[in-house]
Amino acid sequence: MPKIDCLISPGRFRRYFSFAVALMGFVLSLGLSHASAEDHPAPGADWEKYATPKADKILIYKSERKMELLRGDTVLRTYHIALGHHPSGKKMQAGDGRTPEGSYTIDRRKMMSDYHLALHISYPDAYDMRQAAAKGIQPGGGIMIHGQPNYMTPAERARLGTDWTAGCIALTNPEIDEVWRLVDDGTTVDIYP
Hints:
25% of the residues lie in helices and 25% in strands. By secondary structure, it is an alpha+beta fold.
């Protein structure tokens, strides 16, 4: 019978096998939780009561730099936010650096933008457009709830602790990840002074 040479020597095979077993153990450990059995529903349990419900309303309080996600009257999450670089007063025109005030909706989402993720707010609505037209100005647009910029200079990074947007509502990237999951298109956004 002819001799067949192995492509991998027995010693090398043992090293690769040991590495593969260690890697599998590491990957499995990432998926395991150290929580107690009480934190996990029993098989056949009602899983819906353990899931975080979706928000049906977003409340933004500009003067407090606070955003809340609500389901009915229950506050699901609260976030500290950054606003436009001229945060006082209602947005009146393009380029004024103000964040709008009023009742709007999330009308679309953008995965690919200059920011980590972005939920578009329906500003300007018909009222905003009439007000701007009466004054002969453009109302602006492109107002979003978004994360941090994808690319930042050191100076831009230093501004993140202040009101730095052009009129949008900014969160940290982990926060916008959470909001992205908990908020559907069509959700009401009420923005207060």
